[in-house]
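Example record

One chain of 153 residues, shown exactly as stored in the release files.
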Amino acid sequence: MTMLRSLLPSSRAARRLRPSATATARSVIGKNAGFATQSGNDAKPPHLPAYLHLADGSTHVGKSFGKHAPVSGEVVFSTGMVGYTEGLTDPSYAGQILTLTTPMVGNYGVPDRTIIDEHGLPKYFESHKIHATGLLVQDYSHHYSHWNAASSL
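Predicted structure tokens for this chain:
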């Protein structure tokens, strides 16, 4: 999955984004802070550029984090204020580039992926894998701190 930190929500360009827009994004592999409830001082902020190319010909530049790979998909958005881990693993977002309207993403990290509930399903996720093709956020927090965090986004 590719993730892109974008400044779009605070710009005029954000108003032109439509859920049916087709996009291509590039990003870079992020550093995993390890299995701890808080990231260390070695966590680095995203610094490599990433590009969002829309079907209308416009291009938007942001900072990349996550996997470095070109992707394409339908740009959709979620207005939920919490639950980026659930959104990323929701099968309904398969093949789509998910835009989160939450101002900051990543600050509470990601729970342990190996914890299973009494029904044999992932306890903190909607499925066993990430279905979204990409993720657009306004402010990516490369430091996380949460009692339930096992790794960074």
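Notes: The chain has a mean pLDDT of 76.
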